[in-house]
Specification:
Layout lengths: L1 E9 L9 E7 L19 E2 L2 H11 L12 E5 L9 H10 L3 E6 L13 E5 L24 E6 L2 H13 L8 E6 L13 H11 L4 E2 L4 H4 L8
Parallel strand pairs: 2-4, 4-5, 5-6, 6-7, 7-8, 8-9
Antiparallel strand pairs: 1-2, 1-3
């Protein structure tokens, strides 16, 4: 496997936000979203065996007295983790070791290759991403009540797309949570932020049963910081 970084931080997104988590960031992505904040993971990386990854995760996530085993979180992310064929096997081994495994994916790859008991956090790309229309609709038949669907929203147009997609496909109740996440401003000014308050006002006005998702790690550390 080609790995960009393995580190321990807190979950910054999803319904697991705020919990300690070990992240395994795989190298490579086949999409080029306009607001991507992990461009550094597109190329390079270091070669690891699955055993190497397991060893590093165990080192970072070593249990201490009083630690709840069921709260030992590992997220496999990227890049796009499903480009690497070893990912399902890595997820299976982590689950067998008692970890709660989150897998964040663009929604373009087939998630049915993953173990059913892994938590899938699946993006649906909105128009302003530049990658709208890439969603693999077969994934909707794989997702269940522990999984999450996320829309990254940069504009009113994105919001309306997410709202209609959510309603058309009955996402509320189909998955554990539907996340509407405002785009965070690029530190170098390449794209502006989506105002979170405005997004909340739209959600409340339309009475949507979705969860606002903020990238809380970007409020704790500098948004350009890697490995957090």
């Amino acid at each position: 496997m080609f790995i960009t970084e393995i580190f321990k931080s807190i979950q910054g997104e999803s319904t697991y936000a705020g919990l300690p988590c070990v992240f395994v960031r795989l190298t490579g992505c086949n999409l080029r979203c306009t607001w991507c904040d992990t461009v550094y993971a597109f190329h390079g990386g270091m070669k690891y065996s699955v055993a190497d990854v397991m060893s590093r995760v165990a080192e970072l996530q070593a249990s201490k007295p009083g630690t709840r085993r069921d709260l030992r979180l590992v997220e496999i992310t990227g890049g796009e983790p499903l480009l690497q064929p070893e990912t399902p096997g890595l997820a299976r081994q982590l689950l067998d070791e008692g970890y709660t495994v989150l897998i964040e994916t663009s929604g373009e790859r087939d998630v049915s290759v993953l173990p059913r008991d892994a938590v899938k956090i699946v993006d649906v790309k909105c128009p302003d991403s530049g990658e709208n229309g890439k969603f693999n609709f077969a994934n909707l038949d794989t997702l269940d009540q522990k999984d999450e669907i996320k829309f990254v929203i940069a504009s009113r147009r994105d919001y309306e797309f997410a709202r209609e997609f959510t309603a058309e496909h009955g996402l509320v109740g189909r998955v554990h949570e539907v996340l509407f996440s405002p785009v965070f401003a690029d530190p170098e000014g390449k794209w502006p932020a989506m105002d979170a308050r405005t997004l909340v006002e739209w959600i409340l006005e339309d009475g949507l049963h979705v969860r606002l998702g903020l990238q809380i790690h970007k409020f704790i550390w500098d948004p350009a910081t890697h490995g957090v």
